[in-house]
Design goal:
Strand content of chain A: under 5%
Shape of chain B: globular
CATH superfamily of chain B: MetI-like
Largest interface: A-B, 104 and 117 residues
Number of strands of chain A: 6
Number of helices of chain B: 10
CATH class of chain B: Mainly Alpha
CATH architecture of one domain in chain A: Orthogonal Bundle
Largest sheet of chain B: 2 strands, antiparallel
Order of helices and strands of chain B: HHEEHHHHHHEEHH
CATH architecture of chain B: Orthogonal Bundle
Strand content of chain B: under 5%
Helix content of chain A: 55-70%
Strand order of the largest sheet of chain B: 1-2
Oligomer: heterodimer
Radius of gyration of chain A: 27 Å
Structural class of chain A: mainly alpha
Largest sheet of chain A: 2 strands, antiparallel
Number of helices of chain A: 12
CATH class of one domain in chain A: Mainly Alpha
Chain lengths: 340, 307
């Protein structure tokens, strides 16, 4: 219908759209049922549609329930302090506190600290990189680019988002890692920074398109008023559009961070997967997502490590969930401000 | 004067960042095509891996990818489109629809690996094992299979389908619905005969995007049905007719790339195969995405002229 509507339709004398309507046979008066009684098929269909609508709610509930179910069992089985550190005896018999994620072996160690620092060591640089590029791209597409440039560049950015993450991860592993190591002379070929670049690549389109949407939501009158006062184009952008859309842009970056924390395949392939506690972005790290992906295939179902991995998953889900809620609140604030 | 220079600088910066991002896409494509194109032959596309996956083609992985995405679409399309119809045409603005919308938003934010965990814990170990117990089928349902992998992927792409269908439904002018109601049509009749035909291209766009997303995801299927190597295709014979067996494991393109790059006996030796597989996967998802983008832009433009 859309295809035929465009050219075939026009505007009538009253300014209304005249479009070809699909034929609806009017119900003959004789067969029309009394208004009060609802048709059974209508009721059944509406119930079915409502059920489909609530499936999303049910699914989100089930996801939380199942992760909690296994995760809580891990909390009951493994002493709470073990998730921070374990005391082991070194070779001279002296007790030593270690913070390791080493679930396989005689004395499994379940410190979540290396996984948490690993996740953030990838996600924070990735978000900074993606924020710079994404916001720049969003501003350019919304405020600066001509329609023609935009029609070429925007699909390209969207296509970048469509590249499977395993492909980005593979390229980081096969090309970017070596290239960066030769360029920067790092110790590890695969490190948090390589992973961060990969993750940034898939986050940029998200931030760019959300930034663009936020800027487009700024009323045109604000811009016109600034131009009327003699502002230059950049003054309008930096002084009016971006400040008005700042909540939306912030929400875009927050959502980007959530996406970066949840990214699995890229970090699994590109960060080297050594569970170290470090703040060096050029060190090999292991994230929460990569830990689950690498270990779940080889664990005993229902075992201690299995439940610990569900706990890691539950922690990850809680973090990303919180991030999404924060982003939603920030967006809500922007909507209210623009509405008033 | 100084201020103007600053403006020019920042405008140039934004343009530069955009061009760099676009350049990243071109660079990625160039690397993949440059390294992978020479591997692509008819034989590569149509034969199975041989010699411990060091040689041979990737046909089982292509076949598995097509099967699982179609199975996923079969599950997600009725649910997603139904949910969107409910939200746009029936629900109004009460508490229920607000909860649904919040759930869809949050479902879109669930990390893919968490979906995989859920797929294993819920579909295989809970639903599957209980089915086996009730039906006395031994270990038929309670193990990784295409069915469960497709279901897990369906959860992941459900928000994509719902959001794009909603957008398509909302684009149908209100007056068209009112015209239908004025003729005495019931709500479902208006939806089926007036709204859905017009929203059809938009819904199709969403379906295509979800296929492309599903074909590219690896994390959800890692534990729910992917096989490192299968000597056979996941087929079964029903009265002598070969059918896809949804209870079998399968090979898949994105998983194939992952294991070839990390767990292959000689990752350097099989690099060409890895690039070739990558090229096939990227070509597949790109063709789908490009179709969806073009279809959507066309739909939007016609909407603009129509309203």
């Amino acid at each position: 219908m859309w295809l035929t509507m465009g050219r075939g339709s026009g505007t009538s004398a009253w300014g209304e759209v005249v479009a070809e309507l699909p034929a609806v046979r009017p119900v003959p008066a004789a067969s029309r049922r009394p208004r009060r009684r609802r048709d059974w098929d209508e009721v059944v269909i509406e119930a079915g549609l409502r059920l489909a609508g609530y499936v999303a709610v049910i699914l989100i509930g089930l996801i939380f329930a199942f992760l909690l179910k296994e995760g809580i069992q891990a909390l009951l089985r493994i002493p709470l302090s073990e998730f921070l550190s374990t005391t082991v005896l070194d070779y001279q018999g002296n007790p030593k506190v270690v913070r390791l994620w080493q679930p396989v072996g005689d004395a499994p160690k379940y410190s979540l600290l290396p996984l948490l620092t690993g996740s953030f060591l990838v996600a924070v640089p990735a978000t900074i990189l993606a924020g710079i590029f994404g916001v720049g791209t969003g501003v350019y597409l919304a405020e600066l680019a001509s329609t023609r440039t935009r029609e070429i560049l925007k699909p390209m950015i969207e296509l970048l988002a469509g590249i499977p993450t395993v492909v980005i991860g593979f390229l980081c592993l096969a090309s970017l890692g070596t290239f960066l190591q030769e360029l920067l002379g790092t110790t590890f070929r695969l490190n948090a920074f390589v992973g961060a670049i990969g993750v940034a690549l898939v986050t940029v389109p998200l931030i760019a398109s959300l930034t663009e949407d936020a800027l487009r939501a700024v009323p045109a009158e604000l811009r016109s008023a600034a131009y009327g006062l003699g502002a230059t184009r950049w003054q309008v952008i930096a002084g009016v559009s971006v400040p008005a859309a700042v909540s939306g842009i912030a929400a875009a970056c927050i959502l980007g961070m959530g996406r970066a924390l949840g990214e699995t395949m890229i970090v699994l392939l590109a960060t080297g997967n050594a569970a170290l506690i470090t703040l060096d972005v050029f060190s090999s790290v292991r994230t929460m997502t990569a830990t689950i992906a690498a270990e779940l295939g080889a664990v005993v179902q229902g075992g201690e490590q299995y439940q610990a991995l569900f706990l890691v998953g539950g922690l990850l889900l809680t973090i990303t969930f919180t991030i999404n809620v924060v982003a939603e609140l920030v967006l809500e604030r922007m909507r209210r401000r623009l509405a008033s | 004067m100084n201020r103007r220079a600053l403006g020019t600088f920042f405008e140039g910066l934004c343009r530069g960042l955009t061009l760099l991002t676009a350049f990243a896409l071109i660079a990625i494509l160039a690397i993949i095509v440059g390294n992978g194109a020479s591997v692509i032959t008819w034989e590569f596309l149509s034969s199975a891996p041989t010699d411990g996956m060091a040689h041979g083609g990737i046909f089982p992985a292509i076949f598995g990818t097509i099967c699982i995405t179609l199975l996923m679409l079969l599950m997600v399309l009725p649910l997603g489109v139904g949910a969107a119809i409910y939200l746009v045409e029936y629900a109004g603005r009460g508490l229920g629809p607000r909860i649904i919308r919040a759930a869809v938003n949050n479902l879109a934010g669930v990390p893919s690996i968490v979906c995989g965990l859920f797929g294993l814990g819920f579909f295989i170990l809970f639903v599957g094992r209980n089915l086996d117990r009730v039906l006395q089928t031994g270990l038929l349902f309670g193990q990784p299979a295409m069915l469960w992998a497709a279901a897990t992927l369906a959860i992941l792409v459900l928000p994509v389908v719902i959001v794009s269908t909603e957008e398509a439904l909302r684009a149908v002018p209100r007056s068209h619905r009112e015209a239908g109601f004025a003729l005495g049509a019931t709500r479902w009749r208006v939806v089926r005969q007036i709204v859905l035909p017009q929203a059809y291209p938009g819904i199709l766009t969403g379906a295509i995007l979800s296929i492309s997303r599903g074909a590219g995801e690896t994390a959800p299927i890692l534990f729910t049905g992917c096989a490192y190597f299968l000597p056979r295709l996941p087929l079964t014979h029903v009265f002598g007719v070969p059918m896809v067996n949804p209870l079998d494991q399968f090979m898949e393109l994105s998983y194939h790339i992952f294991i070839m790059a990390t767990q292959s006996t000689d990752a350097q030796l099989t690099r060409p195969i890895q690039y070739g597989t990558t090229l096939v996967l990227v070509a597949l998802t790109f063709a789908l995405n490009l179709t969806a983008i073009i279809a959507r832009n066309r739909g939007r433009r016609q909407q603009v002229t129509a309203s």
